[in-house]
Target: tRNA-2-methylthio-N(6)-dimethylallyladenosine synthase
Amino acid sequence: MKSYWIKVYGCQMNERDGEIIAGLLEEAGYYKAPAMEEADVIVLHTCCVREKAENKVYGRLGQLARLKSKKPDLVIAVGGCMTQQPGAAEKMREKAPHVDLIYGTHNLHELPQLLKKVEEERRPVAVIWEKEGPVVEGLPLRRAHGAKALVTISYGCNNFCTYCIVPYVRGRERSRRPEDIIEEIKALVADGVLEVMLLGQNVNSYGKDLEDGVDFGNLLERVNAIPGLQRIRYMTSHPRDFTLKLVETISRLDKVCEHVHLPVQAGSNRVLELMNRGYTREYYLELVKTLRQYIPGISITTDLIVGFPGETEDDFQDTLDLVEQVQFDNAFTFMFSPRKGTVAATLPGQLPLEVKKERLYRLMEVQNRISRVKNEALVGQELEVLVEGPSETDPEKLSGRTRTNKLVIFPGPEDLVGKLVKVKITQAQTFLLKGEVAS
Ligand code: SAM
Ligand code: SF4
Ligand code: F3S
Model:
């Protein structure tokens, strides 16, 4: 029997792909290696959303070249978003000739056959489908988490935000049929899952490509009705497609958690338009107001990009001002990274790294202060936490998340893992809360 090791880069979509790759390999007779160095097959499932993500993969491939020189039978497979870009496979062939198999985003399910081909023919193989095929259902899956599960509801994206590579490497939006999603979640619940995260690049446009008129609100209603399921999360929500009807639906579904990840990207209308986001700052602020009115206590997180081509200091001030006005619970902040093939990579006014860095730093300073104040307001409260396991930073303690997606660390016995417990918050930091099990 041969063993495998998978390293996943990028977003939750990729994390979920990683679970499918593990499932496919186990079905084909492989077992999970105890460490990367001991594996017979190493799979890097990559991301290319920013240049940094690609550099990480090449860094790891350098390390694997040394490992392979000691273990010539090692098979290295690289695939996912990075290799799906035009010309990427050729570049990888040149820069990393020790890679045995290159696959794309659309042919994951072929991985076992492709690995067999590599082993039989003893030569490198590259198979990348240029275009997405129909949604493939029924793939095996080896889930990484116990009581929490990722469930993809749609693949790809139709939005073409001008900075973003995702629509090019993940193809057009394809929704899974609601029946398939419900079946999958029922099976997960039977397997002990309490919380599902519904995944899509834009969950709010779920169902637009299906014929039965189902939309994201209908899907949430059906998932909410599954007995035994306790919590429903969803991401990512595109502000443009977040209708009042959907806000109302969410507000009355008891299992849908009080958290929304609502990327705004920028606070300047001029930049939002250049980004092709399809909304204004005024619209966004109004949406935030509505969400807070209908769903009291909702936590709102976002993504922000600084240094978009042509972004002036005034534009950037608009972003800072929006961040102050909204008071996000947390924000993922990025420096604009030009991606080949996207519109923004060719726009005039590309900014020097120094300017981007300095703006990122100022933005993070503002947001970190807000995150801390928001967390401090929770001290003294008793919050429901789904216990995930030992804390990564403090393995003596347990960690889990509140319905509002706040990370909580607290002492407690291991048999709480996988359960919902009430935790009294005793201390707040910028990125986490500390507490004790409420008696
Ligand atoms: N579909 C989601 C959305 O609409 O927000 C997530 C897309 S992407 C996987 C996650 C985040 O990466 C985006 O929200 C954006 O802030 C950031 N991002 C995408 N392309 C980028 C680029 N070229 N440079 C910097 N950040 C980028
Ligand atoms: Fe990229 Fe925009 Fe699609 Fe999100 S909505 S994946 S940012 S193109
Ligand atoms: Fe995700 Fe990166 Fe691909 S963010 S969709 S893995 S480009």
